[in-house]
Amino acid sequence: MQLTTVPVLHRVLSVNSSQKQSAILAFLLGTLLVSFAIFHVVIDELILHSASFVLSVTVIGIRTMQLIKLRTEPDSVTRRKIWGIVIFGAVIFNAGYIVWLLDGWACGFLRSAREKIGLPWAFLLELHGWYVFNLLEEPQATDSETNRWHICTGIGAYIFIAVVDHLASGDDLQDIDESFAWPASWASRSIFAGRDAVIDSKQK
């Protein structure tokens, strides 16, 4: 989680900064990351770990919105596409995170419910198995289970990393959707980008 958010956090905070300022920021964020990681492993707690993660994601979200307003024209097709991608990324990322929290809070209930329901429908209640953190929740999990690690949050993280990189680079953003893999490219023409984007997509 932190290994994903910290580089993106550095990227959004170092836009238009000098090489020296960027290096100092990288050192500070790296120091914080290592400190949090050591504290998390030694103390074995999740509150500070989760709180720092939420704070990082919040700062990235706010800064991303600022960059979108700064780098795109108001009411432009480009801004609409980017907003569609970002909103979709935020929705699917938070969905994965919320499901992980629910799985942690209701682990016992979900486990007993899966035993009663049986396969194949029990898979629907295997929240950590196909959303997030299967490896951390059940270290004895099989390889086939751990390969499904971080699907929703992985897609959301990819979208924000790519969007931030495009916004920070200063490149032409007119055809930004074409440089994204599915489902981000779809999101730029979906309801997430507004009703007009859906109409334009159908006309094409």
From TrEMBL:
Record-level Gene Ontology MF annotations: hydrolase activity, acting on carbon-nitrogen (but not peptide) bonds, in linear amides; metal ion binding
InterPro entries for the chain: ACER
TM ranges: 23-43, 49-70, 82-102
One annotated Gene Ontology cellular component of this protein: endoplasmic reticulum membrane
Single GO biological process annotation from the record: ceramide biosynthetic process
Domain of life: Eukaryota
Annotated residues for binding of Zn(2+): 150
Membrane topology label: Multi-pass membrane protein
This protein's UniProt keywords: Hydrolase, Membrane, Metal-binding, Transmembrane, Transmembrane helix, Zinc
One Pfam family of this chain: Ceramidase
Keyword Iron: no
Subcellular location: Membrane
Reported cofactor(s): Zn(2+)
Membership in a protein family: Belongs to the alkaline ceramidase family.
Protein known as: Uncharacterized protein
Biological source species: Talaromyces stipitatus (strain ATCC 10500 / CBS 375.48 / QM 6759 / NRRL 1006)
Lineage, opening ranks: Eukaryota, Fungi, Dikarya, Ascomycota, Pezizomycotina
